[in-house]
Amino acid sequence: MIRRLCFIAALMLCWNTVHAADKPVPKKAIGISLLAATNPFFVDMGNAMKAEAAKHGMEVIITSADFDVAKQKNQVSDFIVNRVSAIILCPADSKAIGTSIAEASKAGIPVFTADIAALAEKDKVICHVATDNFGGGREAGQAMIKALDGNGKVAVLDHPEVESVILRTKGFKQVIDDYNKSGKGKIEIVAILPGGGAKEKSFAAANDLLQSHPDLNGIFAINDPSALGAVAALEKAGKLSRVKVIGFDGMPEGKQAIKDGKIWGDPIQFPDKIGKETVQAIVKYLDGEDVKKEILIPTALYTKTEAEKDSSLK
């Protein structure tokens, strides 16, 4: 009887082993929480992540925080429950997202950040891939000096909740400060207002700027939606021709506004490169290879000269 039971058990073990081998091995999955699905920059980034992941036989779960860190925290919790292989975050709040990063790390899931870095629990992020935002901010400052011929009053439409914008504004201010110290001219920053990184809020902020500073000469907007909001306010006030707008991003609508002479220029980013590099970093890490703590991609200044040669524009 005992021999018979052992024989049956052996047969069952062989059966289960053979059929387990027949089962497809589940793909590795990457949980992705973008900042905003309505922003073409993040749409391009997400598409690049999906395409690069597919090359490596990986699936992606793409979600959008829509600027809401509470929503993003819930998305991270879902990723942890689903036991994804890695998480990519574009933090809605660089400080508040820290607790979620810590939870993922505790669960053994590596976290990567793209475009926007985490300030809290930054040490638990495996790799941050982004535009060189500080360098791009400096490029925006140099563009403003050129646009105003070295003299004028300017304002900044800011969004200090995210690390990438903090760096852009810091780079911009540094260049303006250095220029003023050189004695070659005077660019005065008269106001820094929150624009929320969104067109509607920046439109309202720009309206306030124009009322409190009617002699304004320039606006640095930290992304294209902010710049387009500023353009709408300037058009409404009939001041578009006298106030130079420097944006940041290089979205299609922003580039078209540059060609149309509504925005003076943008330090442009390359979201497709950010998306691709982030997934490649994940693949290397999961394969046991060393990964750089930070990968920065330089901006390139895009003005009407470049826009006139851009076949993608009208």
Description:
The chain has helices spanning 2-22, 40-55, 69-81, 98-106, 133-147, 163-182, 199-212, 224-237, 252-259, 271-286, 304-308, and strands at residues 29-34, 59-64, 86-89, 111-114, 125-131, 151-158, 186-194, 218-221, 244-246, 265-268, 294-297, 300-303. It has 314 residues and is an alpha/beta fold. It has two domains: 29-131 and 271-298, Rossmann fold; 134-268, 3-Layer(aba) Sandwich (Rossmann fold). The strands form three sheets. A six-stranded parallel β-sheet has the order 2-1-3-4-5-11, sandwiched between helices. The longest helix is centred in the N-terminal third of the chain and has 21 residues, at 2-22. It starts with a helix and ends in a 6-residue tail after the last helix. The model is unreliable at 1-25 (pLDDT under 50).
Would you spell out the secondary-structure blueprint of this structure?
Blueprint lengths: L1 H21 L6 E6 L5 H16 L3 E6 L4 H13 L4 E4 L8 H9 L4 E4 L10 E7 L1 H15 L3 E8 L4 H20 L3 E9 L4 H14 L5 E4 L2 H14 L6 E3 L5 H8 L5 E4 L2 H16 L7 E4 L2 E4 H5 L6
Parallel strand pairs: 1-2, 1-3, 3-4, 4-5, 5-11, 6-7, 6-8, 8-9
Antiparallel strand pairs: 10-12
Q: What would you say about this model in short?
A:
With 314 residues, this protein is α/β, with parallel strands linked by helices. The protein has helices at 2-22, 40-55, 69-81, 98-106, 133-147, 163-182, 199-212, 224-237, 252-259, 271-286, 304-308; strands at residues 29-34, 59-64, 86-89, 111-114, 125-131, 151-158, 186-194, 218-221, 244-246, 265-268, 294-297, 300-303.
Keywords summarizing the entry:
single chain; 314 residues; alpha/beta; Rossmann fold; 2 domains; six-stranded parallel beta sheet; four-stranded parallel beta sheet; 11 helices; 48% helix; elongated; disordered N terminus
